[in-house]
Description:
By secondary structure, the chain is an alpha/beta fold. It folds into 2 domains: about 5-275, Acetylglutamate kinase-like (Carbamate kinase); about 290-440, VC0802-like (2-Layer Sandwich). The protein is about 40% helix and about 20% strand. It has 14 helices and 18 strands. The strands form 4 sheets. An 8-stranded mixed beta sheet has the order 3-4-2-1-7-9-10-8, with helices on both faces. The protein has a 6-stranded antiparallel beta sheet with strand order 13-14-12-15-17-16. The longest helix has 20 residues, at about 110-125. The mean pLDDT is about 90. Bound molecules: aspartic acid. The site of aspartic acid has 13 residues, from loops.
Amino acid sequence: MRKIVAKFGGTSLADAAHFRKIKEIVSADTDRRYIVASAPGKRFPEDIKVTDLLLSCYEKAADGQPFEDTLLAIKNRFQDIISDLDIDFPLDKEIDIIREHLSTKPEKDYLASRGEYLNSRILAKYLDFHFVDPAWCVSFYPDGTLNEPMTKRAMGASLYPLNHAVIAGFYGADDEGKIHTFSRGGSDVTGSLAACAVNADLYENWTDVSGLLAADPRIVDDPRSVEYLSYRELRTLSYMGASVLHTDAVLPASEKGIPINIKNTDRPEDNGTMIVRKLPKGETRYPVTGVAGRLGMTVIQVEKVMVSDGSGFSAIMLDILKQRNLPFEQCLTGIDTITLVIRSDLIADCKDDLLSEIQSVLKPDFLGIKENLSMIAVVGEKSTESSDANIQVLYTLKKAGIEISTINQGAGKLNLLIGVPEERYEDAISVIYSAIDESQNVAI
Ligand code: ASP
C-alpha cells in the first residue's frame, strides 16, 4: 500500500463545505493515510484567520484587556463547522481550557497553536481517523528551534502503527511540554516532516490555487502555471517571495526524494505543480521556471585596493556581520570591492553603527550604501544551458530603462539575482516575465 501525506491549508479548512470536499478527496484514494491540518483560514477576503484571532486574544490578555469578544468569535468559527457537519465535539470544554489559560499566564505559542489543535480534532472525528497531537511527537528545543532528528523518530513511531490519522500542523512541544510553533504557514513544515518520518511515496499540499505560478499574478496578468519544478528551484522561488509553500517545508521531503504535489482543494481534478528532485526527461519546459522577488533591500559597498589578496579582508567583513548576528542575502566580491546585500529591516536600527564599525576596522578607500532596492530572482535549472535567457533578461531591463544595481549568478546556474530600485520592481518583474514567456519551450 502506498503512503500519501496530505496537508490541507487554512482556506481548505475554513468552513464545513470545505470539510466535505476534504472528505471526498481523502475517500477517493485510500493511500491518503496521514492528514495534516491547519487552523480555519479566511472564508472571504475580509475574513480573519482563526490563528490571527487567537493571537489577538493573547495580546489582549497579556495586556490585561478584555478578550471575551474575540474568544467568542473563535468559538463561533468552530461551532459553525461542528453544527453544520453534525459532529459531537466538546467545544465548550475546550474553550473553557483556553479561557482559563488566558486568565492565568498566557503564552503566545500555546494560544497560536489552538486553531490547529481544535480543527484537527474536529477533522479526525469527521473522517473517523485517529487524532495525533504533535505535542507528543514534534520536538522542539526550549529555545524554540526544531529538534529534527528526534521529531522524525517520534513522528514515525506515532504514525507508523496507525493506518489513518490526522495530525495537527504548525506546532510541537519541548521536553517540558511547553508548546512551540513554527513561523506562520508552518503546517507545511509539519506535513513535510511527517512525509519524511513515514517514508511517504508522495506529499500532497492542498491549498486554494492549482499550483505555483511562474510570476506573481498581482503584477503579471494571468501568468502560466508551472507543471514541474525541482526542490532547488522551489526553495529559491519561495525564499524570494513566491508564496505557495513555506520555505522550510522543502528540505525534509527532499531529503528522501519524496515528490511534493501542490493541489487545489476546490479543483482536485487539476494536476497542480509537482516538485521533484530531478525534472522528468523528455518533458517540454521553459528555460526559465519562474521569476520572483523581494522588496526592502540595502546594498553596502566596500572598496579597497586588493581586497582579495588573501589577507582576510572579506573574512573580517563577514565577521563584523556575524558578531552582530546579522544575516546577509548576498556577498559579491571583485578585485577591489565587496558588495553586501542585506535586508533593510534588519539593519534599520544599527545602520550607522555598522557603517562606522566597517570604517574603523577595515579603513576602506570607499564605503557606500544604497537603500530601497529590490532583488529579483530569475530561476531555472536550465536557464543558461539551453538558451540565452539571462542575456535576454538583462537586455530587456536595459530596454525598459531599469537601472541594474547588482547582478549575481553562481556557478550552479540555478538563478540570476538582479538588484533594481524598489520603484521599478513591478515593471522589472513584468518585462522579465514577458521576455521569458516569449522564449521557446525546450525539451530536457
Ligand atoms: N495557522 C497558521 C498560520 O495561519 C499555520 C498554518 O496555517 O500553516 O500561519
